[in-house]
Amino acid sequence: MIKATKRFASALTIFTLLISVSTFLTPQAQSKSDVIKKDGDYLLYANGIVKDAKTGLEWKAGPDRDMNWNEARSWVQSLNLDGGGWRMPFMDELEGLYKKGAGNRNMTPLLKTTIWYVWSGETHGRNNSTVTGFFRFNAGEPYWSYRFYKKLRAFAVRSRSDG
Question: What global pTM score does this model have?
Fold first, then answer.
């Protein structure tokens, strides 16, 4: 009986220690265990983050509604999901998502959107405010337009080296 009590106490101590350690894990480490779907190199986590295991980039598709560039930027800046650190993607990062014939939009179907165009964070023109970039997934190419154009979507991206 005493041996059983000591084993129980040891097990309880180990369990308590594991619980204590898990509270100090980063959100990224905790989310690694909850992959709910896989598409080649892409992993979808329960919190909606899609990780590209090849590049290490983590993606989050924004609300599936029309947004101009300022609205998209505001959504990305306010995104606090899984520890934050999100930004608008660069054109080459969006181009890296392009896979002709994949899903309904030439990209992994784990990133859900009903529109072919996704805003980039890149800008050109006077004070970097005249035109902004977006990627056309129907054609597989970058494009430039005015910020007020509204039929585009926002994606957020981050890498753990971003912040």
Answer: 0.77
